[in-house]
Amino acid sequence: MPYDPSAFPPFAVTVDLVVLTVRRHALCALAVRRGEAPFQGRWALPGGFVRADEDLAQAAARELAEETGMRAHDPAVPVQDNGAHLEQLATYGDPKRDPRMRVVSVAHLALAPDLPAPRAGGDASNARWAPVEELLEQGGYGRNGEPVAPLAFDHAQILSDGVERARSKIEYSSLATAFCPPEFTVGELRRVYEAVWGVALDPRNFHRKVTGTPGFLVPTGGTTTRQGGRPAQLFRAGGATLLNPPMLRPEV
Amino acid sequence: MPYDPSAFPPFAVTVDLVVLTVRRHALCALAVRRGEAPFQGRWALPGGFVRADEDLAQAAARELAEETGMRAHDPAVPVQDNGAHLEQLATYGDPKRDPRMRVVSVAHLALAPDLPAPRAGGDASNARWAPVEELLEQGGYGRNGEPVAPLAFDHAQILSDGVERARSKIEYSSLATAFCPPEFTVGELRRVYEAVWGVALDPRNFHRKVTGTPGFLVPTGGTTTRQGGRPAQLFRAGGATLLNPPMLRPEV
DNA sequence: AGTGTTTATCGTCAAGCAGACGACTATGAT
DNA sequence: ATCATAGTCGTCTGCTTGACGATAAACACT
Q: Which bases along strand D come within 7 Å of a protein CB atom?
């Protein structure tokens, strides 16, 4: 039977990005201001159409580079350079999620170390890192007291799913190192966990856990005092990607 | 700016299903025989086009019902009736994954109790439950000695991802009960874990673990001897969906 | 009726890990 | 010199797990 174009409805396919980082002890996501209708002027997740000859992961990596200048990391290589971790999150395809047409969005999750200010087409006022609670609270008020409109489309749901994925994934994988610069201290890694989970962790037990897990951290030999206090050993991410037993997220 | 249809390439969007069950102590997946090119006559995962007015989850539930007669389970309700657990797995969009056209497939994972023989358009020879190792081994031979061609398209990858999702998810959730009938014994649940993980578990430690986890199992009061031996208590799935601490998968 | 087989269920023990927390160390700031 | 800050090493206790002995209740034989 020959291929019949009328047998299926045409869709637009986009990738949307949940780009997370830790800034000033808070879990932040990249948001861009929409320049066009619908939701003109509202904050949204970065994203765009998948091109005709492009894989989904390629499209996500391209959008990530366009918005942040980061290169996505090859998943086969351990996270240790300036590249961000990038993975598929979920796909959103409600028929009414875009009022213009039928759009299916393949959301991706990117984890990045703290970066310089974002750029969106070179216009800094149209892109920012915002704490995820600020982006997710409906009808709240921002840091400057101005009212904050909810994210465009179903992006609040996507962001929420991405944050939940990140929260659970750092439990049983070494992914938290993706939030850190190439060399980091145990305390910096602990502050990542504390920011992502929104809890305080015991520095002594955390230190025992991460240094005692084989393959998680590799000492570089150097030390730093950039956090103040006693100099701390510097580490790089080890080859291990799975944490067994996992890092336990405190209750409540 | 008005909507410009030339701004994005059109895609076909499908849902493909990884339907898993446990039959005769083996993890099995539903496969259907393709009636048309490409890959005519080869085994594939069930699936089909998403309709113009349909959500992705709706499309997956519809395909599941068409292929198996099962109703998908509302995720908000605990798994305890004949409905299958259904969740989104991942999305596959390589430009060359379908030689005819650009198709993005949103794969879903369904877990079902052992069911009567499947139906595919009423023709039993075109649908079957096959052990997942049989479907995944490339160029192997089936139970009857006939050569087995690999699954169509990228369905071996999708099936592999679905199996891996199921294997990891029963560790930390009560999802293994989705493979069981509404009432089941601890031994039957244990055989589910053994089939999905491909390991042998200690019956005494398993019993202690599952009966000691609050909210996992609810005794119905009845007993059964359908497995032979001493009568076993019957249970239903409790309300708990997360297992904490998780069920540990043995090493190696 | 007795014996063996099968499956279910309860108990014991030791090893490992996590949470709570004391103690000490090495920096910079005042 | 003293203090504040952060890092690192230990100790103790309780919980969970893995290994495995023992008992219980059914069925299938002889």
A: 4-11, 16-22, 24-27
Q: What is the mean pLDDT of residues B60-68?
A: 92
Residue B216 is predicted with a pLDDT of 98
Tokens of A128: 């920012």
Q: Is B1 exposed, middle or buried (0-12, 13-18, 19+ CB in 10 A)?
A: exposed
- Residue A71: the pLDDT is 78
| Closest residue of chain A to B60, computed from CA coordinates | A93
**Length reported for chain B:** 252
- Which uninterrupted H or E stretch holds A15? strand A12-23
Task: Compute the average pLDDT of residues A46-68.
Answer: 95
Length of chain A: 252
For A16, A167, A170, A191, the CA distances from A200, given in Å and listed in that order, are 31, 14, 15, 9
Q: Which chain B residues contact residue A88 at CB under 8 A?
A: 90-91
Interface of chain B toward chain A, CB-CB under 8 angstroms: 1, 3, 7-14, 36-37, 49-56, 88, 90-95, 100-102, 104, 106
Task: Quote the percentage of chain B above a pLDDT of 90.
Answer: 77
DSSP B184: B
Task: Supply B44's token pair.
Answer: 């594939």
DSSP-assigned letters across all residues of chain B:
----GGGS--BEEEEEEEEEEEETTEEEEEEEE--SSSSTTSEE--EEEPPTT--HHHHHHHHHHHHH-PPBPPTTS-S-SSPBEEEEEEEE--TTSSSSS-EEEEEEEEE----SPP-STT-GGGEEEEEHHHHHSTT-B-TTS-B-PPPSTTHHHHHHHHHHHHHHHHHHBSGGGGGS-SSB-HHHHHHHHHHHHTS---HHHHHHHHHHSTTTEEEEEEEE-TTSSS-EEEEEE-S--B-SSPPPPP--
List chain B residues with CB under 8 Å of A52: 9, 95, 102
Residue nearest to nucleotide C25 (CA to C1'): A230
Please tell me the predicted confidence (pLDDT) of residue A28.
97
Q: How far apart are CA B11 and CA A12, in angstroms?
A: 6
Q: What CA–CA distance (Å, rounded) separates A48 from A13?
A: 9
Residue A206 dihedral angles phi and psi, to the nearest 5°:
-65, -45
How many angstroms separate the CA of residue B186 from the nearest CA in chain A? 25
Asked if strand D comes closer than 7 Å to A25 Cβ, the answer is: no
- Give the Cα separation of B85 and B83 in Å (integer): 7
Determine if the peptide bond prior to A245 is cis (ω within 30°). Answer: yes
Mutate to test the interface with A, among B6, B36, B89, B104 (most CBs of A within 10 A): B104
